[in-house]
Design goal:
165 residues; alpha+beta; MYOD Basic-Helix-Loop-Helix Domain, subunit B; Alpha-Beta Plaits; 4-stranded antiparallel β-sheet; 23% strand; RNA polymerase II transcription regulatory region sequence-specific DNA binding
Length: 165
């Protein structure tokens, strides 16, 4: 056997070993639903299972992206709502009326609104809500303290509107 044939044989053997190692690594990354008897799968079956698993992961990623966008309230024109959180603040002579409209997944915003009102020394007089078809409507009435600055209502409104999406 000539040295050229021998080196080609070594290169080919190394290539096969590398492919075997790569297939083994791929197979180790795929959760196996198949036989529990411990028998090993053929290489084509392993590759087929890995391909199916990757396709499933791609579908899962697509579903999760859609879910994330829904939770963020992104409107791509196909949704009827304009956002996941809407806040409106009305002020009249030291009295505040905060109207908050959220989806069920954004109810934490109500707690944040109450927290901000307390931080700004506004006394919450009344809070009510109603839920219709997965949308929650909150109305909060608060009184700004007499010793509050003339900018208190504007500052509260600005802080609350950071939650509007």
């Amino acid at each position: 056997m000539s040295s050229g044939n021998r080196s080609r044989g070594i290169v080919e053997k190394n290539r096969r070993n590398q492919m075997k190692n790569l297939c083994s690594q791929l197979n180790s990354l795929v959760p196996h639903q198949g036989s529990s008897s411990g028998e090993s799968m053929t290489l084509p079956d392993q590759i087929d299972e890995a391909t199916n698993y990757i396709r499933k992961l791609q579908e899962d990623v697509g579903r999760l992206k859609e879910r994330r966008e829904t939770l963020r309230g992104v409107d791509d024109g196909s949704n009827s709502h304009s956002g996941a959180v809407q806040i409106k603040v009305n002020e009249m002579e030291g009295a505040l009326e905060v109207t908050l409209v959220t989806g069920l997944e954004f109810q934490f915003v109500f707690n944040e609104v109450i927290r901000i009102l307390h931080e700004e020394n506004a006394e919450v007089l009344n809070a009510s809500y109603s839920a219709v078809d997965g949308t929650v409507f909150h109305t909060i009435h608060a009184q700004i303290g007499e010793d509050a600055s003339s900018y208190a209502a504007a500052r509260i409104s600005e802080r609350l509107n950071q939650f509007a999406l």
